[in-house]
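Re: Re: ligand-bound prediction request (bumping)

Still looking for help on this. To restate: I need the protein modeled with heme C bound, output as structure tokens. Inputs repeated here so nobody has to scroll up.
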Amino acid sequence: MSEQRADVPLDHDYDGIQEYDNRLPNWWLFTLYGSIVFSVGYWLFYETFAVGRNQTQAWEREEELAAQAQIEREMGKEVTEESLLLMTKVPAQLEAGAKIFQQKCVQCHGPLGAGEIGPNLTDGYWLHGPAPLQIYNTVMNGVLDKGMQAWKDQLGPVRVRQVVAHVLTISGKEVKGKAPQGRPTAEWEKERAAATPPAAPTDASAPPKTPNGK
Ligand code: HEC
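Reply:
Sorry for the wait, this slipped through. Here it is.
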């Protein structure tokens, strides 16, 4: 920067505008080479070896940790639809649930949940309801006279929540297996919608449309 050479103009000339052929200053070159070196490191770290989390992954991780923290807070409390759905967003909980399913449920529901002795859990037809709390209650209390045991003592409420989260993730996957038993999900949902709010106006308009409901 200090020993300034004589400015040598390049030999082109645009409308009287000329350009010197000066050497680029070192500080400028350092930023250029520095950023090239940095980009290689960055690429290896985030893309090739994926050691670092990119923004999307960092966000997902943060969400997962928040969900996990909330689950831990809620484990001691009463189970709700929301708390069960939240479980399905946390890989660690789903992994635990899948493991329990493989240990305790496959002999009757099959490894993919497509049913053997027990019904197909993936087909969108339910004997006791598809809602998270309905599934939770079925698993906790069983259907003793039909061969489905109550799991509340053997697994306890935490592990039952985990396995229910797993059932929720396979529900609707339509794995080919045992023929459908029970009623379709849509029908259960309609019934629940009618039962939950004491909604007189919608009830009044509903009957003419529904008698042939499937
Ligand atoms: C010994 C066999 C057996 C085992 C083990 C078993 N189930 Fe079942 N399960 C059944 C049978 C049989 C039914 C159907 C009950 C009925 O006909 O009402 C059933 C029903 C269900 C239902 C209700 C399905 C519906 O259509 O509403 C769910 C959910 C369920 N089981 C989940 C599980 C989970 C989770 C486990 C493992 C923790 C498990 N089951 C272990 C036999 C079993």
